[in-house]
# Entry
Amino acid sequence: MRFKEIKLVFALLGLVFLLFFSNDFGLIDIEKTAIITAVAVDLSENGEYKITAQIAVPEATDTNTENQRAQISGKGATVGAAIKNIGDTSGWFPQLCFCNLIVVGGEFTDYNLIKILDYFSKTLRVQDTALIIMAEKEGAELLKLATPLDNISSFALQKILLKNAGLNRDVAVADVKSFCTGYYSDAGSSIMPLVKVVSQKSENEKTSAEGFSGGESGSGGSGGGSSESGGAKGDAIFNANTTALFLRGVKVGELDEDLTLAFNSLTKDFSNTTFELKDVKVGVKTENFLLTVFSCKASRKVSVSESGINFTVNVDIYAKISDRNGEYSDIDYIKNLTLPYYVEESAERELKTRIEDLIRTEITTGCDFLDIKKELYRKHYSYYHVYKDNFLENLTYSVNVNFSGQK
# Structure
């Protein structure tokens, strides 16, 4: 009996090796696999989706240690069909498991984005944590740009979206999961960063603004089988401090850089973020200050009664002065330092104004990015059916902000 079991084990091992070496596991030739790092979704002239995929092509040698890049594109009536078209026309199998960035073209401003992002949320080929952004213009153009930070634009974009500790929390990051969860929630509200291109062209450069990618060939035609690679880094950098607001998948407004910073102070880890104060009155003069936030404790509370809904925001920030442009200063640059009263008052007034503008933006756009309706449903369900269709019309609010240094 024992001998039969051993023979069975060896027989199974032999079968496994046979299938492996005969490629019956369906393994894909690595030379025919396109490792996609980012995809851009645009609208073609005939109304089809145009998918541009950015592929990382490692070409490290003794003289060149930079990753090269290539773009291939495809078209289709659906997003899935356009991605499949990339493989059909190029002969490369589009491998999406390493895709960490999805760029939506700016031409989809009046378009329900769930028609695009629903594919990425349901397919198992793409991670739910893949970041999503909206381009100011065409999404494919962002992928073609080369930056001083990285020759592959998707890597440069991820650096400014996912900042390391110690950098400002001035970007409202969104991924596929958060956008689709917000869309399918009762509030139907979602956000994502709106990325703009900023040129840092020097005066002695003669290349045009459209030639940042250097040595590129155009993307594929109707099916898009062409590829391109760039050598030298360009002079374009990205700004993702603006936040696009969406209601039922359609863009309804934006948060500028100041409001995005205020939004992050309520929803994210805000430590090490700098806060600028301009024209602070110090005696008979005005000065500019730069504060560094060491801790931020924010709370939001929704109270409901028959008379309406009240939204209360409390923010306590511990900060210090990192810089000022005064002619004379008696301030030591140490961590524990009492903030002058005029700095505290100015900072509290500035942040309070921004948060109030944030709430007014929610009321005017209808996008519940502050999750007021979610709190109404979770904690005040008895009033939910009373206010679910008009909660913003019955909303009042109060904001309390406190800045402090050493006690």
The chain has a mean pLDDT of 82. The longest helix spans residues 341-365. The CA atoms of residues 10 and 271 lie 59 Å apart.
